[in-house]
Amino acid sequence: MNYESYNRFGNRIELTTCEEKANEQLMLLKWLEYQKWEINDTNISLSDRFSKTRDEIESSLLYKVLRKMPKGAALHVHDVGLTSVDFIVKCLTYYQDLWVCVARNKELHEFRFSQKFLNETNTTNTCTWYPIKEWRRMHGAKVVDAKIRDHLIITTTDHKLVAARLKEIKSLLKGLISYAPVWEIYFEQAFKEFIEDGVQYIEIRTILPRLYNLTGHSLPHLETLAALKRASETVAFYNASFVGTKVIYTPSRNVNDNEVEMLLSGALILKLVFKDYMAGLDLISDDYFAKPLRDFSERLIYMQDSMDFYFTVDDVYGNQLDNDENLIDAYLLGSKRLPFNYALMQHPYILRQIHRLNIGLVINPISIEYMENLGNSRFHPASILFTFNLPLIISSDYPGLWQASPITHDFYLTFMKIAPRESDLRVLKQLARNSIVHSAKSEAEKDVALHVWEIMWSKWICELKNMNL
């Protein structure tokens, strides 16, 4: 029993005297939280899906305590779904010169900024362009805002419907956030929201879309990354607790041979120009017909000395065989981190190598509920991983799309539903530290980030220790 306990995730962390006292407070909150869920007189239980429990979670004292907790880094989040939907609806869609393309069934297809009359310059049989200001005047601001909001969130948990919905949202948002003046503002807001949620560092997964201006002209590809870097530096300048961001370039695998050469050459150019800011490369699947990772392996092997890889396995689109093979190829190609998914549990050799080589293993708890049609995260397949001392990391994938906080909701579900019931402050501390240790930062940068995190952690521990419960 002692051996098993020692080898559980987080149990090798030694707490200070202050942390021990704070841990007593934390565990009291946790047991009170379990009691609250067990005697809840509503039809909502802790085992329900996130979409049903979200409001109850946010009203709890434990959630409020966890929100203040310094969580280290968010290592797996995307450019789409990075901010709250309210910011997009109430701020970005009120910008001047914004048009929306509306289908006959009133579905929204696309946003676009333009000085021109788009029905003449962009003909389409699927929808009609309206200035957003005019469309609001026709139907009322509240009605239009509610409709836009409905188009930017995912409520279904059906595996295949989630995949289609995700693709629709990406298509809808592309013309909105890739407008050059909006791109920086969008990310500045996202970084501020993550800071308020207790995050010190972020790695953004993005296809780096070509930005455009009001005349419709596209800007050089390098400007997309430069603008994102400026947004990061601006926010870091005004927030001492924020140690910046890096980018993982994530172009699609659904390309032909000629496009592959251009894509990978472009990635190397981006890495050459933004050596310290571009963390590395992933090749993602954005539909059911994308090529498997093995089709790119020969070219990727030649890039290994120049580029770090952060591959994912695309459960939302791939079949079981493809996911298995992509996971194995990601490991063989030396991916710096691996994502948790169902396929991983069927490969004990890779799990042993993750432990032996200390490869970061990223879990996105809420995302898995949606992407993999998981009925109950209390029986989450990642739960077994917390019984071993694996290098686990918590992140949030597309938090805005399921109306979640940047990362606190994922920590709450991990602490209350996925990790063992007796998990305490040690688990939270280990998760936060792992996120920095397994980031794409250099060793010197990690030392700085850990120092900043430790200062904030000590402050939070003091506040928790002195809480009146």
What does this structure look like?
The chain is an alpha/beta fold. The chain has a domain at 65-80 and 198-458: Metal-dependent hydrolases (TIM Barrel, Alpha-Beta Barrel), CATH 3.20.20.140. It has 19 helices and 10 strands. It has helices spanning 2-6, 17-38, 50-58, 61-68, 85-90, 118-121, 132-139, 141-151, 159-177, 180-196, 221-238, 257-273, 297-303, 320-332, 348-357, 365-371, 408-418, 425-437, 443-465; strands at 73-78, 98-102, 108-113, 128-131, 201-206, 245-249, 278-281, 337-339, 360-363, 392-394. The strands form 3 sheets. A 4-stranded parallel sheet has the order 1-5-6-7. Strands 3-2-4 form a 3-stranded antiparallel sheet. Strand 8 (337-339), helix 15 and strand 9 (360-363) form a beta-alpha-beta unit. Helix 7 (132-139) crosses helix 8 (141-151). The chain starts with a helix and ends with a helix.
CATH superfamily of the domain at 65-80 and 198-458: Metal-dependent hydrolases
In DSSP terms (H or I, runs of 4 or more residues), the helix count works out at 19
Largest sheet: 4 strands, parallel
User: Helices and strands: which structural class?
Assistant: alpha/beta
Spatial shape: globular
At the fold tier of CATH, the topology name of the domain at 65-80 and 198-458 is TIM Barrel
Number of strands: 10
How large, in whole angstroms, is the Cα Rg?
A: 22 Å
Identify the CATH class of the domain at 65-80 and 198-458.
Alpha Beta
Strand percentage, roughly?
5-15%
In round numbers, the mean pLDDT is 91
What strand line-up does the widest sheet have? 1-5-6-7
Gross CATH architecture of the domain at 65-80 and 198-458: Alpha-Beta Barrel
Helix proportion: 40-55%
